[in-house]
Amino acid sequence: MEYNIRGNALTIRLDEKHLASVVFHKEGNRMYLDSTFTPEEYRGRGIGSELMKSSMDYAKKNSLLIVPVCSFAVEYFRKHREYSPIIVKS
Fold this sequence. Notes:
Elements: E1 4-6, E2 9-13, E3 19-27, E4 30-37, H1 47-61, E5 65-68, H2 71-79
Parallel strand pairs: 4-5
Antiparallel strand pairs: 1-2, 2-3, 3-4
């Protein structure tokens, strides 16, 4: 899925009316994933995982480390230890 950066949010367009997003902030070389949102009608379809993969892509392209803050991001990266080289515990 293709993502866009809008201010401090990474967004994925789901249809004409709906976006899924990760709100983040940066401090130095760290990208803090503060919150994630997927519209209710799109939940359970792997959109959250796509948000995390897009966040990692953005972080790699910008030489950032990821700090998962929101509960979804914390749980996602706990389950996917293969991404640990770019993950920093908060």
